[in-house]
């Protein structure tokens, strides 16, 4: 099944795929998840609806793929040689303006998740889990280098610490964190909790 | 203005006020913030709409007061003599079932905040800021006792660390954290970041 899907998807050039994802994100910004239709995506991208369903399976999957594509720099491209360097690179890979835009998109999707279980499943499988896997590898490198003790209890809570830093200002102030804020948070909270000295 | 409002509000007995807040929360659970009307609150509580507006000023203020009233135990009633004791008491003051209910309510309001600036303002002024003040006093007691260094950088991020613990499972799994989870998170992340030894 996966092979068939891959074979079919491979008919699209990477450029055409990127163009489709951009159109989906534009529509998402314009009308929000609930009002976004496959008809509108088909019209905007001059595709047939049948093609869209065959390639992605449905609206939830298409939207999540588009969001994931939108993250220009993936965590697994980051490898600076220290955990502090990796976390700082992660916090600064988007400038404050681009962060503002992607934060607004993610917020809209986070809201839609509560009334769309298929979106929640797609988001977890195709977005959260791959991100967590890349994150885990970043942390495992730090353990292998001896920066963090393998039995440090905070290792189980990496994602919670990062969400605390990235999502709190969005939740309380309806705006994303700045890079300066994130760097301070990483140095004051994440690294000390992991027992990494920052001085 | 505040004096007049207080004088007017004092006409309600605490029992009647509690009954009104319960009715507002029931309606909030049933229809959500956007569909909740002052007409429905008036009908449900056999009040006049004029009275509701006079007492609370509007729907946003009434809903936020009701939510705040719903937090049975306030942080400022907690004072165990140690920061670990205080944070653990905070994490366990609601049982898992009650946490589930209040988490669903808060999630609904968090979603409504994005399209209702008056709700965001009321929520910040009447909910977040009082909570943060009580939280600050808890931490200041720990500094005064010598448990935490007054210049510990993590002190600026208490609220972010706590949101990371309380909100991440709600965001990613659409369910609130359990008490066991919160206690582990506090011991693994919050106390080590503050330099408090837990062993």
Blueprint (SSEs and pairs):
Two copies of one chain form a homodimer.
Chain A: H1 2-9, H2 14-35, H3 38-45, H4 49-56, H5 59-70, H6 83-92, H7 96-113, H8 117-144, H9 158-173, H10 179-193
Helix pairs in contact in A: 2-3, 2-5, 2-7, 5-8, 6-10, 9-10
Question: Structural class of the secondary structure composition of chain A?
Answer: mainly alpha
Low-pLDDT windows of residues of chain A: 1-7
- CATH topology of the largest domain in chain A, which one? Tetracycline Repressor, domain 2
Terminal Cα span of chain A:
52 Å
Q: Could you spell the SSE succession of chain A in H and E letters?
A: HHHHHHHHHH
Helical content of chain A stands at: over 70%
In this structure, how is the largest beta sheet of chain A organized? none
Q: CATH homologous superfamily name of the largest domain in chain A? A: Tetracycline Repressor, domain 2
Large-scale geometry of chain A:
elongated
What is the oligomer described by this structure?
homodimer
Count of discrete domains of chain A: 2
Q: How large is the share of residues in beta strands of chain A?
A: under 5%
Biggest interface, residues from each chain: A-B, 33 and 33 residues
């Amino acid at each position: 099944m996966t092979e068939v899907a891959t074979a079919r998807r491979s008919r699209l050039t990477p450029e055409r795929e990127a163009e489709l994802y951009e159109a989906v994100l534009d529509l998402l910004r314009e009308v929000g998840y609930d009002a976004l239709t496959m008809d509108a995506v088909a019209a905007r991208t001059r595709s047939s609806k049948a093609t869209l369903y065959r390639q992605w399976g449905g609206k939830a999957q298409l939207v999540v793929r588009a969001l994931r594509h939108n993250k220009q720099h993936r965590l697994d491209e980051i490898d600076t040689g220290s955990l502090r360097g990796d976390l700082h690179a992660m916090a600064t890979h988007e400038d404050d303006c681009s962060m503002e835009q992607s934060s607004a998109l993610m917020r809209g999707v986070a809201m839609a998740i509560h009334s769309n279980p298929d979106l929640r499943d797609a988001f977890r499988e195709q977005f959260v889990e791959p991100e967590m896997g890349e994150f885990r590898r970043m942390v495992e490198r730090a353990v292998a280098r001896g920066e963090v003790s393998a039995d440090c209890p905070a290792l189980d809570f990496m994602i919670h610490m990062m969400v605390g830093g990235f999502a709190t200002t969005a939740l309380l102030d309806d705006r994303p964190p700045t890079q300066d804020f994130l760097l301070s948070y990483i140095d004051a909270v994440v690294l000390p909790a992991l027992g990494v000295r920052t001085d």
